[in-house]
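Troubleshooting: if your tokenizer reports a length mismatch, compare against these two reference records.
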Amino acid sequence: MNVAIIGSGNVGGALAQQWIKAGHNVLIGAQFPLSEKNISLATKIGEDRFAVIENAVKQCEVILVATPPTAIFEVIEQLGDVSGKVIIDATNAVMKSPEPYKTVYHALADKTNAEIVKCFNTTGFENMLDPIYDGEGIDMFMAGDSEKAKEIAKKLALYCGFASCIDFGKSDKVELLEKFALSWINLAIMQSYGRDIAFKLIRR
């Protein structure tokens, strides 16, 4: 796949490395592609993978958003025409929501004609770089109305090494999925279990 990642922080950087390793063409869309902030990631994946947001999006059919939630309006202005493209919302409006919307997913659904899914938001970036615990992959989770976007998100999760990508439901479950992310944050950080913890659905 051709994937544009908007946001070069820990989550965007981790997913970029995993998808490049899996053989996908990944571009990092940034307002300032080779800023000092991006140099560290550029040394790992190559400077040629950085572009301004509009150019990165033009070349890709899948877009992952991993920016602070309140930055989404500026990002949307730079996306250009994304009609029919898949956008994966990997953000969490835990501290501050993109008002008047409850989540970035809802902002994207209202302001674009893209196929949107919430995914890659429920665990730490360390688990995205290495989702294997005791020889077995942990689970990723997704929510949204677009079956097309969910199918893409599921494939990309499996390429990272996750055992499965479990469907939380449609758009009415997006906020629940963000609360699920807060559960991981609560355990890992607030309750001091550490970031090397993960969720996996098991069946009897």
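Reference record two:
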Amino acid sequence: MLKTVAAAALALSAVFTAPAANAASDVPDFVTIDVVTVNGSGCPAGTAAVAAGDDRTAFTVTYSQYLAQAGQGSAPTDFRKNCQLNIRVSYPQGFTFGIAQADYRGFANLQQGATGTEKGNYYFQGMSQGASRTHTFTGPKSDNWQATDRAQVAEIIYAPCGEVRHLNINTELRVNAGTASKANSFMTMDSTDSSVSTKYQFSWKRC
């Protein structure tokens, strides 16, 4: 199921269900994802979409205008774009969750001397503890890019058991023209045909 996300408070939800007999013991029988807000220069209203996986272990986000650029033809503010998702995850009592892995993909056209950076930051509402990962790409490069944020078991940050805490995911693309300021360099995390998406994998545990 695919849902368009607006840049204000939303009532969209993605629901995962499966017969109890088929549910793994360490995965809840049902999971509901509500996208509360989405804000940022990389995801203007109507340019992001959420898709729910049927196995209740992951969800994906697809963007259509997530592009950062620097150098010739770019505006001063184009070098950095970001998007922050605020997500409410509902599930049966006795479970809690964290984000075990995030897979990012896009396209980069970086000139010799230019660099591009993708950053992901994950934290629960009201908690100071969070996780952040950064990946840097160096020109010359004109190809698809991929980056994975993978947490070790001991590094996964879980929502407090028995409490409702929204999950915040803040992503960023940044391009530095470097010595190639007379040419255009850009980096995207978007897709016009929904074939390129960001995938977030849950880590579930019993309380």
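Descriptive notes for reference record two:
- The longest strand covers residues 95-110.
- Confidence is low (pLDDT under 50) at residues 1-24.
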